């Protein structure tokens, strides 16, 4: 018994494995905190990029058009296609048209009722099955007061147009979307057209060989690859989640 007792007393005094045991207990917690911090930082960066992309597209959409001192500027389908290519280059590795969708709307006043707002046209790009939650092409009159969140609507002035851009993006996590909760990111921006513009239509530079139209009826990336099913139903006019 004395020999066994000495062994037990020796084991009780032995502290050589304490640090390893403490590390084994603390490591999962510390790794989890580190992963959460990295995921949160990356999510913040992606939010910033998506918001900057919305501003970039709206600003450029307000400037496009033929420059002429004699006529109002005409805009072309190729101009809008170039905007989409430009934002894809701007956001880089986000692959925004693979995991998201951009919707450009021309908000104007109704020619038949200048006090009423009207979405004259929309152009869309992206595989994400997300319909606009600020209005659809052709919306006008009635309860339609403009585009934007509830009580923060943007309205066009008579004879002018506002380029309203909305982006929806499904966040692609570094590790797991369970660390950040809701994985959908939304952004919107609006700029008034900077110069006199021909508001009658969007033209084709060569009608005999027309450029592709970024139709809102299709959900494709820049290569024409089709996305999955719809996530939301169209009809809302007050923004995401309403």
Detailed description of the structure:
31% of the residues lie in helices and 18% in strands. It has 242 residues and is of the alpha+beta class. Helix 2 packs antiparallel against helix 3. The mean pLDDT is 88. The protein is built from four helices and four strands, in the order ααααββββ.
Explain the layout of strands and helices.
Layout: H1 2-13, H2 18-61, H3 77-91, H4 96-99, E1 100-110, E2 113-125, E3 161-170, E4 184-192
Helix pairs in contact: 2-3
Summarize the structure.
The protein has 242 residues and is an alpha+beta fold. It has helices at residues 2-13, 18-61, 77-91, 96-99, and strands spanning 100-110, 113-125, 161-170, 184-192.
Mean pLDDT: 88
Strand order across the largest sheet: 2-1-3-4
Proportion of residues in helical segments = 25-40%
Silhouette = elongated
Number of helices: 4
How many runs of DSSP E, i.e. beta strands? 4
Work out the strand percent: 15-25%
Distance between the termini: 76 Å
How many strands, which pairing sense, and closed or not: the largest β-sheet? 4 strands, antiparallel
The radius of gyration over CA amounts to 27 Å
Descriptive key words:
242 residues, single chain, 31% helix, four-stranded antiparallel β-sheet, alpha+beta
